[in-house]
Amino acid sequence: MTLTSYLIRNKLHLSILSALGAAAWSMYFGVEVNWWAILTVFFLTFSIYQYNRLTDDVEDSANDPDSFQDAKKNEILITYVSFYLLSALSLIIAYQFGMMAFWVTLGIEIIGFLYNHKCFPDFLSNMLGGARRFKDIYVVKNLTPPIDWATALVFLPLIFANEPLTLQAWICWAYVFLCTFFIEVMWDMRDRHGDLISGIKTIANSFSLYKTKVILNTLNAASGIGIMLATYKGVLPQVSYFLLSNNVAVMLIASAYKEEKAHAMRKISDMTIFLAGMLFLSFGFIAYFSH
């Protein structure tokens, strides 16, 4: 197994991206990088996505059977060390920086748990059409991970530094939310086959691939225009124009998806994480030196 395959299979690429993103946004806001905050973001991402490897049994058996079998072999390690232990360590670290940091970290963990774990009681599941977790609920499955990502990357570093959540911070939160939403939909485009087998209704399998691309690129263009206007009006610093490179990347990658090349699209979608990591890191350095 290559290093890249190992990083992707164990969700380390996502965890590294989240840590880079949190550091970059700290530099963007002119806040000293708090390595405890960065470590907490890394732990949160790693614990939630590792646990997700165990809970998507039906769809991953079709979409990525080798990764699922590997996860099942390490079920005890993933459950009790990667998820429970790292979640507990995240809360312990956050508590040192105040109750606000503690509660926001706990909120991220609860959303991640309810997204993955099939724990809804029968009466609630019946009301939700058989859904046992957030991931089973149409559209909600695409909205909950972006809430976690945007909160961890943009808000947590500011909260750890005891900084206020300004209008600028909320605009950046909304932008990261939308970018993560785009990635979620692109992953659903990649996983259409397995999601259909498992009965999970997604945006990507509710519409044709072409219509999904149109929806994705329209929202992507709107978010880019929003960043341009906020930067032009002086609400965001001039360095924010650099964020538009992320919008261009989303448009190119989404447009490249072809259903008959599902295996190739899986590799491309995984590489988008590395691309986003490099974008955020370089953006952070530009923001830092602009201060």
UniProtKB/TrEMBL annotation:
Domain of life of the native organism: Bacteria
Transmembrane segments: 12-29, 35-54, 75-94, 100-117, 138-161, 167-187, 214-232, 238-257, 269-289
Subcellular localization, as worded in the UniProt entry: Membrane
Topology class, membrane: Multi-pass membrane protein
Major localization class: membrane
Keywords per UniProt: Membrane, Transferase, Transmembrane, Transmembrane helix
InterPro entries: UbiA_prenyltransferase (IPR000537)
Keyword Ion transport included in the entry's annotation: no
GO cellular component assignments: membrane
Gene Ontology molecular function, alphabetical: transferase activity, transferring alkyl or aryl (other than methyl) groups
Name of the featured protein: UbiA prenyltransferase
